[in-house]
Amino acid sequence: AWSKFEERYITELIEIEASARGLVIAAVEEEKRLKELEAQASLGAGPELEQKMKLQRRAFLSKLSRLNCAANLGWKGREDRGAEVLESSLEALKDKPSSVELELDLERRNGPSLLCV
Length: 117
Hints:
The chain is an all-alpha fold. The chain is built from 4 helices and no strands. The chain has helices at 2-42, 47-71, 84-93, 99-110. Helix 1 (2-42) packs antiparallel against helix 2. The longest helix has 41 residues, at 2-42. The protein is elongated.
């Protein structure tokens, strides 16, 4: 009787591990696809590539959100947050200068900065 219990217990643990591993693998695969698109975009992105990146970003964030919810035992994860938060942030930053550009601009105007950040 005890060996049957142990067998069922270990089998269940193996199934849980396989399920969890599947969530991680799915998220990693989506991230790889997104990185490939970002590498293509670094060479110059047209509207079609931008759309592909947007869709891939959504797919990646969906998998990441699902993984977060599965890992959070207190059920305090936010699976309801989609890519719209990231997309609106990226859109807001699209035409803004980067921190490096701002620092270079300040150095041109005021001389080299003495602060190390």
